[in-house]
Design goal:
Among the domains are: 267 residues, Beta-galactosidase, Chain A, domain 5 (Distorted Sandwich); 149 residues, Sandwich (Immunoglobulin-like), CATH 2.60.40.1180. The longest helix is centred in the first third of the chain and has 20 residues. By secondary structure, it is of the alpha+beta class. The protein contains 13 helices and 43 strands. The strands form ten sheets. Strands 7, 8, 9, 10, 11, 14, 16, 18, 19, 23 and 24 form an eleven-stranded antiparallel sheet that branches. A seven-stranded antiparallel sheet has the order 1-2-3-4-13-21-20. A six-stranded antiparallel sheet has the order 36-37-38-43-40-41. 18% of the residues lie in helices and 36% in strands. Keywords: Calcium. Its cofactor is Ca(2+). It comes from Parapedobacter pyrenivorans. This is Alpha-glucosidase.
């Protein structure tokens, strides 16, 4: 090679180095622990995720496939990326905290096709100290005005063979209610739908949860394993299998979220999902009141035997309204009785809607205005149950009548889908409900995605296999399953759970009872569930006689449902979790245990300076034969104290701390 050739080669290499460098981008979390690395290969865009130097996600491809114009991902060019840093706080109307910090680094990576219509897509990545997220944005552009998406090719090429905790399904239309499976990535059956959130436990005690945030005008995402790699799988529009999303540009996808930490409690404390949602466009939420509610369907519609005939009538509702008024329970649920709804319907039972169903009219035996007026006199608000198909034909008509009666909110049930149409239906329900000052409690619904920042009137969602199954299932909901919920489903947000069963029995004595259902796990375990679970409308679902005069009920009378601050002072996955939550100056600390007895230490270093009067509710001495046995102790504590908690099998413990 002569000198001229050498100089030419050197010059080409010199030019190539910055060009190649431009194809690779790194985004680091503010604390430096999480790194997102992006490169544009000749085939597809690829990313990698590391945590404290350990690769969690190796080369994972990103692409989109459209009905018109084919796939997007090959033959791309990348103009200059735009970086930004954000550190701000925002207030939540309802949530696990009153004020959240949004601290992240962001990069927007434009991707443009080199030929054809030169379609353009932006990949947006945000790195937080407790995770990262990415989404696709479709800016307004000259040659592309709308799309029909057939596949989103987001992949998660997980390194090693971590243990996964997730719900697995064989079809998209489901209640999202099931027992969590625990299996390694290699054991996941191919083409099975993995529900969100899914928790991955790596060998060196690093945890990563995959879920989504800000699900709006898009299809819900699952993961499915193909060729050993986990890939996104979107819920298709009803009646076919290929079309997933239809949209006009500009448009954007939900965030694909990876929550990451080597402390499992940090994932439970995280506000990453609300930080990835939009602020509420509504400025006045002063009318919104989180609280607890009766729900007599769960207990079997129990009323006293001799006072009045039970049914869909004023007397039955008055009985529960009076109970709520006596015990500082903010809401009473008007449901129906004996499997039939409170509203006019020609359908047989709760689960279906007939051609002449009308929620603006009650059954002849009920006067809704009388019920609402009486409840208002007693300082109790009314909350109704409805089938979603009973309200959706005309939300404005239905919600106008609810507001006129004085109803404050509703449980919307039997949704059981997460395709784009259903996602939009649920947002429409929230939007119209907010205009009529109504809150929403979704049942038979997919997981939350942090949307309660945008719509604080979304109080809670079910999407959990919960204590309602104790009414009919031979396999009761166990303390182990409660922990599965805490360490998986709770990562996504509020979880409605039919709380409040006060008839605990040893597991050997459990039997199915549709009326007056039985529980396993101790009374203190049940009390602690009100602190451990996040829900802004927790149920007190048993009947009055089951509660009044019972030890521990005074804790349920006091415990809030929305919080100013949340900490996890101690947790060990699958074994136990302690949650500490503050409302005003008072702290509530709840611990639930699995089916193995143990003693744990709970440091109180989350408390501010000063002394606190602590009321401790602990499993009693006779709890093995009577799981409802509760020991109550008073003591004075400070933030330097460490509380020793003996936990029985299936047990729990709660503390109520008030500053002296």
């Amino acid at each position: 090679m002569n000198m001229l050739q050498k100089l030419t080669l050197f010059f080409c290499l010199l030019i190539a180095i910055p060009i190649y460098a431009q194809r690779n981008i790194k985004l680091t979390s503010p604390d430096g622990n999480i790194v997102f690395a992006f490169k544009l290969t000749d085939n597809l865009p690829v990313y990698q995720v590391t945590y404290k130097g350990k690769v969690l996600i190796k080369d994972s491809e990103l692409s989109m496939s459209f009905k018109e114009g084919g796939s997007f991902g090959t033959n791309l060019k990348r103009p200059e990326a735009r970086f930004d840093e954000v550190d701000e706080t925002y207030d939540l109307i309802v949530g696990k905290t009153k004020t959240a910090r949004d601290r992240h680094n962001e990069v927007i990576i434009p991707l443009i096709e080199r030929g054809g219509a030169e379609r353009q897509l932006h990949l947006v990545i945000r790195a937080f100290d407790d995770g990262l997220a990415f989404r696709y944005e479709f800016p307004k552009q000259k040659n592309w005005s709308s799309y029909t998406l057939t596949d989103e090719g987001s992949s998660f090429n997980v390194v090693g063979n971590p243990l996964v905790r997730a719900l697995l399904w064989d079809n998209y239309n489901n209640t999202h209610e099931g027992f969590y499976q625990k299996l390694s990535v290699s054991e996941i059956p191919a083409d099975t739908l993995m529900d969100m959130p899914a928790l991955f436990e790596f060998s060196d005690n690093v945890y990563m949860a995959i879920t989504e945030a800000n699900l709006r005008d898009y299809a819900g995402m699952y993961l499915t394993k193909r060729d050993g790699i986990l890939k996104s799988q979107l819920s298709p529009l009803q009646g076919q299998t290929t079309e997933k999303v239809k949209a006009q540009l500009p448009h954007r996808t939900p965030w694909r979220v990876m929550m990451i930490s080597d402390r499992i409690g940090e994932l439970l404390e995280s506000n990453i999902l609300t930080s990835l949602n939009d602020p509420s466009p509504v400025t006045d939420w002063s009318w919104l009141k989180p609280g607890k509610t009766s729900f007599h369907w769960w207990n079997g519609d129990i009323v006293p035997d001799t006072i009045f005939p039970p049914g869909v009538n004023f007397e039955t509702n008055k009985y529960y309204i009076d109970f709520c008024a006596r015990n500082h329970i903010e809401y009473h649920s008007v449901i129906g009785y004996g499997g039939f709804a409170w509203y006019k319907s020609d359908a047989a039972g709760y689960g279906v809607v007939g051609p002449h169903t009308d929620v603006t009219q009650t059954v002849p035996s009920l006067n809704m205005q009388q019920v609402c007026d009486y409840a208002k006199e007693k300082g109790v608000d009314i909350h109704v149950w409805v089938h979603w198909k009973a309200i959706y034909p005309d939300l404005e008509k239905a919600f106008t009548q609810f507001e006129k009666w004085g109803v404050k909110g509703m449980m919307v049930d039997f949704l059981e889908r997460d395709d784009q149409e259903m996602v939009n239906i649920q947002e429409e329900i929230l939007n119209v409900a907010a205009k009529h000052k109504l809150f929403i409690q979704f049942h038979g619904a997919y997981k939350p995605t942090g949307l309660h920042r945008t719509y604080p009137n979304e109080f809670t969602r079910e999407g959990t296999h919960n204590y309602e199954f104790n009414k009919w299932s031979e396999l009761p909901v166990s303390p182990d399953h409660d922990l599965d919920i805490a360490f998986t489903r709770l990562l996504a947000g509020a979880a409605d759970y039919h709380l409040g069963g006060f008839r605990a029995v040893p597991e050997a004595k459990f039997k199915t009872q549709y009326t007056r259902p039985l529980m396993i796990g101790t009374r203190c375990h049940m009390l602690a569930m009100y602190v451990v679970l996040e829900s802004y409308l927790n149920m007190v679902a048993d009947y009055p006689e089951a509660y009044e005069g019972q030890p521990g009920f005074e804790f349920l009378q006091k415990v809030p449902t929305a919080w100013d601050e949340t900490h996890v002072p101690n947790a060990e996955i699958d074994k136990f979790v302690t949650m500490a939550r503050r409302k005003g100056a008072a702290w509530y600390v709840g611990t639930i245990n699995n089916t193995e007895a143990r003693t744990i230490q709970v440091p109180l270093n989350f408390l501010p300076e000063g002394t606190f009067k602590a009321t401790l509710y602990t499993d009693g001495a006779d709890v093995s034969s009577d799981p409802n046995d509760v020991n109550i102790e008073l003591k004075t504590v400070t933030n330097e104290d460490v509380i020793t908690i003996p936990l029985t099998a299936g047990g729990g413990q709660v503390m109520h701390l008030i500053k002296n």
